[in-house]
Amino acid sequence: MFTGLIQSVGVLHRLEPRGGDVRLSLDVGTLSLAGVALGDSIAVNGVCLTAVMLTERGFAADVSRETLNLTTLGALKPGARVNLEKALTLSTPLGGHLVSGHVDGVGTLLERQDDARSWRLRIQAPDELARYIAHKGSICVDGISLTVNRVEGAVFELNIVPHTLEQTTIGDYRPGTRVNLEVDLIARYLERLLLGDQAAASPPTGSRLTRQFLAEHGFFGQ
Fold it and tell me: Positions of the Lumazine-binding repeats (predicted)?
């Protein structure tokens, strides 16, 4: 588990194809690897990866075909900057929100506007994730815990303060940039709990958590 608070911006040193998947070698920048052991988890742009090799300046991790297909990692080039966070411990302040490092989909930046010293971003999420994105709810973008300011269908808006711009890769974003998205973990579990016994009969794609379903179970007034 992670918090979505980025601890360092690293750099991709090498991307090595290996029998259909790849091995990433990364320089971790200012991230301390003290206490990190082989097999430990580190989030790279919001993707939970396992350290299979450690060096003085970084680590290497294998990325499966599944992860390459569902995230932006396979499109990275040597020299690309990435957001890094070590797995949280029981003593870690939970300043962001609970993040699993399991990417739900890839979004696209539609628009970037200056707003005083901040930026406002509009991001298009995959349609199937729209039901999990709520006004003033949490979302993880490339591993960064952020608050949703506005939602219009599958498009949501974020306000990025100067500190976040300086300490993450968001300052590199331009319209068309593809980003890893992880929706609020609680929303996913809530959906399954509300479905109750119907969850076992649900299709593998889509959701039965509709407005009609919620109305039938007393979530809307008469």
Answer: 1-97, 98-194
Topology (CATH) of 8-86 = Elongation Factor Tu (Ef-tu); domain 3 (2.40.30)
d(CA 186, CA 178): 24
d(CA 24, CA 33): 17
Q: Which among 2, 10, 3, 1 is positioned nearest to 167, based on CA atoms?
A: 10
| Distance separating alpha carbons of residues 11 and 25, to the nearest angstrom | 9
Annotate 142-151 with b (16+ C-beta within 10 A) or e (fewer): bbbbbebeeb
Q: Which two tokens stand for residue 30?
A: 């200012």
Output the pLDDT for position 61: 98
pTM above 0.85, yes or no: yes
Write the DSSP assignment of 115-131 as a string of letters: ETTEEEEEEEPPGGGGG
